[in-house]
Each structure stands twice: as structure tokens, then as C-alpha cells.
């Protein structure tokens, strides 16, 4: 660890008292995540129900089979503004039912999850929409939640009900896909209970890792999209939405800061096995997660169970998840630090270290752990080597994909000196008034409608290989909607055609592409079968990079897509949005906030 970083950390440690100075309601609103009062999760499915019958991790191909229970949970989400102080710095945030992080969505594999989302964002007003990260949405591509692509934004005062099959199982999250709203607080965990290939004794539930910014998200978007502006540095790093901060660092006297706001706490049991569901739900940084004195066994990456392997550090790019099993090797009275570090050379972070306390069953739960950090290799701004990962259910990659698309990522200021990202020379700008899925469903695939929509129409091809070449000097967590892709290869330089574990490659929904240059680009080679007619975004998951246009839309199985019947609520949401934008000016600032200049012409 670098000396400067160690000094920052020892400063935080000397500040930290494990008796919080602020109540949980002030730091996190209605959320109880990160407190010892947060419940552990059921080991036998939600409500003790095993909905998946005899389907196991190894006997069921989740992309073609899997259970359908016909029942499932319903949630009502009220999105509004509110003041919270996750690390002691008081900040206007976007909250779901008054909580940051948002409520846990919990369901069984094969359930139908229904979420009624009401937009009560006022002062100022904003549109919104929620995306259910990693859900395939095969039956319901219109409920994927990306404005300009699958729906119009939900107008202030309006509601929209999402209803979708829990088609995969494991750990994920949901977040706003409107502008960079999710960096302003619109995130929450999602757990889908299913079979497991390993036994464990306690499910500690979600462990959300997120870089934190003290500036309100929209001001950062204005900075990112500003003339001659650089990218923002994060101010802190949170575990389950909590951390302390050195208030002396704040210069602005109008910002209220309370020291020792409070860290997250977890309960371990000596001699028992604990499942932790790690989620990088931040805006920018790669997280390196460790637990002092403990190794971890990774059992799933994203929604894909794998042959378990043991590690001392878990690396997660934005949007990625790893489920880990941690053995309770400590004594009943011991306490340990849990840590997550934003990588100093991969990320832009002013205070990169997140801490939480782990208490064994007889430990004093206000004691400060005295354990030392596990050293780890921080050299690669990428994921673990592909040869470490073998999914439990094999899914071979074909050597002969029906079509191959090169995607070259670059970044540069445009003629107005605004820094933009480009894919094959085009920077994405969406149009909220005309969702592409709706147009494609009507047979309007005379692409490109507008080159800035970055549409790649793959027609009726049965499989697609994407070769991503990153000529930019920072890594990108690349996320595809609607699929788990096979990761055939990753590295820096020129791909030599070798496929790692071709009969059973790494498979997930986000993969980091390493930093590169025009001479030696970072690359990833991804491949998937087109079993999901729809319009599916493929984008960098760094909030500020998406704002600056690092985003494309794939049109998949256009003939089958035209046969789908969209629910009337999709059209109604556009009617309400058109009504709203007809009398309110929507700030046109980043890739996700463009609207047509003419009066809205409705499509329905
Ligand atoms: C907090 O920040 C101030 C200002 O940089 C610094 O002087 C002080 O040493 C820091 N305190 C700790 C405990 O790190
Ligand atoms: C939604 O939350 C806002 C802010 O807390 C509150 O004013 C409003 O009454 C809530 N609406 C509903 C339907 O609960
Ligand atoms: C945060 O700021 C709001 C608005 O100024 C205020 O109502 C609230 O009391 C503040 N909270 C804290 C913990 O300072
Ligand atoms: C963690 O794993 C490494 C490598 O297998 C091993 O050397 C080390 O002793 C393990 N540490 C603990 C605490 O089990
Ligand atoms: C795994 O891949 C890494 C990076 O390509 C390589 O250095 C290592 O030798 C490989 N290990 C095995 C067992 O193939
Ligand atoms: C540069 O990009 C910004 C943001 O997309 C856009 O508003 C501006 O028109 C662009 N400038 C030029 C000269 O294209
Ligand atoms: C397709 O949609 C675009 C955007 O609304 C529109 O400009 C164009 O006229 C449409 N084309 C056809 C053939 O309907
Ligand atoms: C396959 O995709 C390519 C674009 O990558 C497209 O030109 C071609 O028409 C597609 N083929 C079919 C059968 O749809
Ligand atoms: C249109 O907007 C007005 C003013 O906000 C509102 O009163 C009305 O209910 C809206 N109508 C529809 C159909 O959304
Ligand atoms: Cu990026």
C-alpha cells in the first residue's frame, strides 16, 4: 500500500470510534443495512419456500429452463429527495421509500417480481426509471428500465409498474438508468434465492461497496459535461452506505459534517460459514475487498455460480458482484476489520478506504478491531485471470459466431472542448421521447435513425461476438443488458484468437476491459446467442463515462421483436412524459438527457 494512502487510513482509524455519533435515520434514512439489527437471510428461500423444486445449479440450463412459480413479491417504491449523511456529510440525495441504500428486493428463483415505481422527485423535478441489473427480461424487454431505449422516463407525479420473472438467481442490484441518478442515491440490493453448490450456515445478505461523492450528482454531471473540465474524484468509500469522514478536510462552511458518523457492522459466528453478497454499486471505482485474517471462497460471479476458488482479495468493477463464503476462523470474542479499497492507480479517489467491523458472537460490539490489513496485488486494472473461473453449469462458446463486431473505445474533447467517449467514432446521445424498442417493435429499424443513437442492428443473426478494443488509458466495466455473455479472452495488445476454457468460459454480465492505447489497446472478447429479441444496451458502467457517451444499443432478432405486443403502460408513460415535457424544460446535458427540440410527436 502506498505511504500516502496509509497515512490517510491511519487518520481515519484514529478518528474512528465504533460508537456512532449519528443515528441510523440521519445517516441512511429508513435503511437498516449495515446495522447489527439487519436480518440475516433465509437459507431455504424467501418465506422458507423452495420454489425451484429439483432444479439444481448443475442440472438446469437457466437460459432455457428454470422454474416458474406463478407467484412473487410486490413492492411499492416512492422516489423522492431527502437529506442524509451516510459518512457524516449532510447531502441532498435521491431516496427510495426514504432509504439509502434502497429496500432489499428478495424473491425466489422463478417468482414474478412486481415493483410499482412512483416518481416524487421535486425541487427540482426530474424524470426517472429503474433498471433491474442482470435480469434477462426475455418475456418483458420493455421492463428493462432504460429511458430512450425501452421506455420514456417516468414523469414527476407519475408511476410505472415493472413486472418481470426472476429468471436467474444469486446477487444483484437495481438502480436508476436516468442520467447519472444512481450516483445520487437511487440504488438498492436484489437477492434471488436459488440452489447452491456449497453449504453455509449464515447468509449475511448484501454488502454494497460504493465510492461516494459529497457533491450532488447533477452538479458532477454538469462538471463532467463542462468545457475544459476533468473527471471528478470521489470523496469517500462506503460499505452498505456507511463510513466516517475527517471533517477537517471540508473547506466549505455551508456543508455540515459530523465526525464518527458510524461504520457498518457484521456478525460472524466462530466455526461457522458465512455467505456475503458483494456488490460494487458505486459510480466509478474498482473495489478491492478484503477481510483481515480471513480468506474468501468465491462461489458466484454476477448471476453465475462457479467452481469455488479461494482468494485473499475480491476485485469488482462497477456493476459486478461476487458471492463469497467466509469461514469463521476467529475466536468467539474476536473482532476484525472488513475493508474495501478503491485502487489508487485504477481509480480517481481522494479517500479510497472503506472500513466495517466484523464482530464474532461474544465480542463487544463497540470495540475497535486491532487487526492488520491483508496485502494484495493491485497491479492489474482488470478482473481476475479468466483461467481461474469455471462456471458450474457449462455453456460452451461456438468458434463460429454468426457475426463479429469490433468496438473501438476512444476518448477526446470535441470541438467545444467537452470531453466525450466514443465507440467506433460515435458518442451516444439518447432521445427520451422515442424509445428505440417501441420504434423497432413497429418495424422502424431503418437504422441509423440518428447516428448518435449508436444502434447496431444485428438482424436475425443467431450469435454475436463483440471484440472490444479500449484505446483509452482507463479501464471500463462493460455491461450488456439481456444476457450473460461468454468471456472468450481479455488482455492488452492484440488478441491472438485463443479462447480461455472454450467449453466453459467465464460468463457474467459485466467484464472489465483493461486500460490501453492505440498501439496496445486493452481488449475483451465477448460472445452470446441471440435468444432474447429486444434492444439491449452495451455500455461502460462508470456513471460519468456513460454521461459522456460510452454506450451503444444492440438490436437483437428484429423479426421476432416485431411480433411482440407491448403493454399499454409503456405508451401511457410516454403520454405522461410528453405532457410533462410539453410544459417543463428538461435540462439537456448528458447522454441520457437529450430530448427532441420540436414539440413532442407521439408515436401511439
Ligand atoms: C484531518 O484532516 C486535517 C486537514 O487535512 C489534517 O490536518 C488532520 O491530520 C486529519 N486528521 C486525521 C486524524 O487524519
Ligand atoms: C413519497 O415520499 C414523499 C417524501 O417523503 C412524501 O411526501 C409522499 O407523501 C410519499 N408518497 C407516498 C404515496 O407515500
Ligand atoms: C441536513 O440539512 C438539512 C437541510 O438543511 C437539515 O434539515 C438537516 O437537519 C441536516 N441534517 C444534519 C444531520 O445536519
Ligand atoms: C489464505 O490463503 C493463502 C494461500 O492459499 C494461505 O497462504 C494463507 O495461509 C491463507 N490465510 C488464511 C488466514 O487462511
Ligand atoms: C492464467 O492466466 C495468466 C494470465 O494470462 C497466466 O499468467 C497464468 O500462467 C495462467 N495460469 C494457468 C494455470 O494457465
Ligand atoms: C460537444 O459535445 C457536447 C455534449 O454532447 C455538445 O453539446 C456540443 O454540441 C458538442 N460540440 C460540437 C462542436 O459538436
Ligand atoms: C422511424 O422513427 C424515426 C424517429 O421517430 C422517424 O424520424 C422516422 O420517420 C421513422 N421511420 C419510419 C419509416 O417510420
Ligand atoms: C448479421 O449482422 C450483420 C451486422 O453485424 C448484418 O449486416 C447482417 O445482415 C446480419 N445477418 C442476418 C441474417 O440478420
Ligand atoms: C398533464 O400535465 C398536467 C399538469 O402537470 C396534469 O395536471 C395532467 O394530469 C397531466 N395529464 C396526463 C395525461 O398526464
Ligand atoms: Cu468507462
TrEMBL record:
<dbReference type="GO" id="GO:0016491">
    <property type="term" value="F:oxidoreductase activity"/>
</dbReference>
<feature type="domain" description="Plastocyanin-like">
    <location>
        <begin position="206"/>
        <end position="362"/>
    </location>
</feature>
<keyword id="KW-0186">Copper</keyword>
<dbReference type="InterPro" id="IPR002355">
    <property type="entry name" value="Cu_oxidase_Cu_BS"/>
</dbReference>
<dbReference type="InterPro" id="IPR011706">
    <property type="entry name" value="Cu-oxidase_C"/>
</dbReference>
<keyword id="KW-0325">Glycoprotein</keyword>
<protein>
    <recommendedName>
        <fullName>Laccase</fullName>
    </recommendedName>
</protein>
<feature type="domain" description="Plastocyanin-like">
    <location>
        <begin position="84"/>
        <end position="196"/>
    </location>
</feature>
<dbReference type="Pfam" id="PF07732">
    <property type="entry name" value="Cu-oxidase_3"/>
</dbReference>
<keyword id="KW-0560">Oxidoreductase</keyword>
<keyword id="KW-0677">Repeat</keyword>
<keyword id="KW-0732">Signal</keyword>
<feature type="domain" description="Plastocyanin-like">
    <location>
        <begin position="444"/>
        <end position="557"/>
    </location>
</feature>
<dbReference type="InterPro" id="IPR008972">
    <property type="entry name" value="Cupredoxin"/>
</dbReference>
<dbReference type="Pfam" id="PF07731">
    <property type="entry name" value="Cu-oxidase_2"/>
</dbReference>
<feature type="signal peptide">
    <location>
        <begin position="1"/>
        <end position="23"/>
    </location>
</feature>
<keyword id="KW-0479">Metal-binding</keyword>
<dbReference type="InterPro" id="IPR011707">
    <property type="entry name" value="Cu-oxidase-like_N"/>
</dbReference>
<comment type="similarity">
    <text>Belongs to the multicopper oxidase family.</text>
</comment>
<dbReference type="InterPro" id="IPR045087">
    <property type="entry name" value="Cu-oxidase_fam"/>
</dbReference>
<dbReference type="Pfam" id="PF00394">
    <property type="entry name" value="Cu-oxidase"/>
</dbReference>
<dbReference type="GO" id="GO:0005507">
    <property type="term" value="F:copper ion binding"/>
</dbReference>
<dbReference type="InterPro" id="IPR001117">
    <property type="entry name" value="Cu-oxidase_2nd"/>
</dbReference>
Amino acid at each position: 500500500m502506498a505511504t500516502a494512502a496509509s497515512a490517510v487510513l491511519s487518520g481515519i482509524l484514529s478518528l474512528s470510534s465504533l460508537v456512532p455519533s449519528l443515528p441510523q435515520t440521519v445517516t441512511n434514512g429508513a435503511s437498516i443495512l449495515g446495522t447489527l439489527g439487519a436480518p440475516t437471510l433465509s437459507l431455504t428461500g424467501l418465506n422458507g419456500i423452495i420454489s425451484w423444486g429439483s432444479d439444481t445449479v448443475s442440472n438446469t440450463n437457466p437460459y432455457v429452463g428454470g422454474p416458474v412459480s406463478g407467484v412473487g413479491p410486490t413492492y411499492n417504491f416512492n422516489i423522492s429527495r431527502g437529506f442524509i449523511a451516510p459518512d457524516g456529510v449532510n447531502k441532498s440525495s435521491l431516496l427510495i421509500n426514504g432509504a439509502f441504500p434502497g429496500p432489499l428486493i428478495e424473491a425466489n428463483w422463478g417468482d414474478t417480481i412486481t415493483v410499482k415505481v412512483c416518481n416524487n422527485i421535486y425541487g427540482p423535478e426530474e424524470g426517472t426509471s429503474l433498471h433491474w441489473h442482470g435480469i434477462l427480461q426475455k418475456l418483458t424487454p420493455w421492463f428493462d428500465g432504460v429511458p430512450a431505449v425501452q421506455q420514456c422516463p417516468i414523469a414527476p407525479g407519475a408511476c410505472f409498474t415493472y413486472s418481470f420473472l426472476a429468471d436467474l438467481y444469486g446477487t444483484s442490484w437495481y438502480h436508476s438508468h436516468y442520467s447519472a441518478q444512481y450516483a445520487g442515491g437511487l440504488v438498492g440490493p436484489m437477492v434471488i434465492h436459488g440452489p447452491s453448490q456449497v453449504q453455509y450456515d449464515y447468509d449475511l445478505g448484501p454488502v454494497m461497496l460504493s465510492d461516494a461523492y459529497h457533491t450532488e450528482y447533477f452538479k458532477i454531471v454538469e462538471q463532467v459535461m463542462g468545457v475544459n473540465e476533468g473527471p471528478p474524484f470521489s470523496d469517500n468509500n462506503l460499505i452498505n452506505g456507511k463510513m466516517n469522514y475527517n471533517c477537517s478536510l471540508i473547506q466549505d462552511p455551508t456543508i455540515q459534517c459530523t465526525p464518527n458518523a458510524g461504520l457498518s457492522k457484521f456478525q460472524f459466528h466462530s466455526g461457522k460459514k458465512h455467505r456475503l453478497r458483494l456488490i460494487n454499486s458505486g459510480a466509478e471505482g474498482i473495489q478491492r475487498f478484503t477481510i483481515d485474517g480471513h480468506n474468501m471462497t468465491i462461489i458466484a460471479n454476477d448471476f453465475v455460480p462457479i467452481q469455488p476458488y479461494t482468494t485473499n482479495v475480491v476485485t469488482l468493477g462497477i456493476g459486478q458482484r461476487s458471492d463469497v463464503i467466509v469461514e469463521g476462523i476467529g475466536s468467539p470474542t474476536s473482532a476484525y476489520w472488513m475493508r474495501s479499497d478503491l485502487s489508487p492507480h485504477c481509480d480517481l479517489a481522494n479517500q479510497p478506504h472503506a472500513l466495517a467491523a466484523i464482530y464474532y458472537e461474544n465480542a463487544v460490539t463497540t470495540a475497535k478491531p486491532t487487526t492488520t490489513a491483508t496485502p494484495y496485488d493491485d497491479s492489474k486494472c482488470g478482473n481476475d485471470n479468466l483461467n481461474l473461473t469455471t462456471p458450474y453449469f457449462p455453456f460452451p462458446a461456438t468458434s463460429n459466431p454468426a457475426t463479429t463486431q469490433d468496438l473501438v473505445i476512444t476518448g477526446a474533447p470535441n470541438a467545444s472542448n467537452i470531453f466525450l467517449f466514443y465507440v467506433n467514432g460515435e458518442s451516444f446521445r439518447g432521445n427520451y421521447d422515442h424509445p428505440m424498442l417501441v420504434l423497432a417493435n413497429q418495424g422502424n429499424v431503418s437504422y441509423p435513425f440518428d447516428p448518435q443513437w449508436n444502434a447496431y442492428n444485428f438482424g436475425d443473426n443467431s450469435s454475436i461476438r463483440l471484440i472490444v478494443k479500449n484505446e483509452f488509458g482507463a479501464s471500463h466495466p462493460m455491461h450488456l443488458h439481456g444476457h450473460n455473455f461468454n468471456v472468450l479472452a481479455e488482455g492488452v495488445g492484440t488478441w491472438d484468437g485463443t479462447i480461455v476454457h472454450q467449453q466453459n468460459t467465464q460468463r457474467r454480465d459485466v467484464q472489465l476491459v483493461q486500460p490501453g492505447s492505440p498501439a496496445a489497446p486493452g481488449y475483451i472478447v465477448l460472445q452470446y446467442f441471440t435468444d432474447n429479441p429486444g434492444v439491449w444496451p452495451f455500455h461502460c458502467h462508470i456513471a460519468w463515462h456513460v454521461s459522456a457517451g460510452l454506450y451503444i444499443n444492440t438490436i437483437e432478432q428484429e423479426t421476432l421483436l416485431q411480433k411482440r405486443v407491448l403493454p399499454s403502460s409503456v405508451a401511457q408513460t410516454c403520454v405522461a412524459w410528453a405532457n410533462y415535457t410539453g410544459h417543463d424544460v428538461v435540462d439537456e446535458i448528458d447522454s441520457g438527457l437529450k430530448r427532441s427540440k420540436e414539440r413532442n410527436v407521439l408515436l401511439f
